[in-house]
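Quick one: structure tokens for this chain, please?
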Amino acid sequence: MNRWQEGLRTTLGVLLWPTKTFERIARDPRPGAALGTGLLLGAIWAGFMSWLAAEGHRPSMTRGLPMPADQYYAVAAVYLTPLMVALTALTAGIAHGLARALGGQGSWPSTLSTVGLAYAVPLLTLYLIPDVVVYAVAGHGALALVVRFGLPLAVAVVTLRVVQALRVAHGLGRGRALAAALVAGVVQAVPFALLVR
């Protein structure tokens, strides 16, 4: 199976068959694949921001932006790629530390591999790609719909997938895995909410 086929298999597995997929990944962890997915997420997001900047758009939600709104898309195009890799690793790191503190037995490579994919795949497939498609078809004004519906869906799926990844990688029960996933989600949400529109 080539790299693209394996990537598609893993992406569909994370979305549709998470337990089976995370069991396979935990047995043969590949942290580079999780970080690579975060890299792909960031690169596509940066490309999208460049497109929006080139067309002269500014975000509709500007409260709390750490830069002038008319510069946001151009500036975000520079930092989104490393930010998404960092948030993928941060989410996995927080979840791993908490899972271990709650009695989990998983290794760091298996946690980064499973939780990293549980974080990046839903954001890419359920939020970012629909965002790009909606913009291409309906324009900038329609992006608010994706934020209103797509982002909550992606966040819910990320949370559920991180819980499942921790259950598989660490052998935790639902409650402990949920606690670790929620704390990791809240921690990564701070920079995400500040820097991503």
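The two ends are 36 Å apart (CA to CA).
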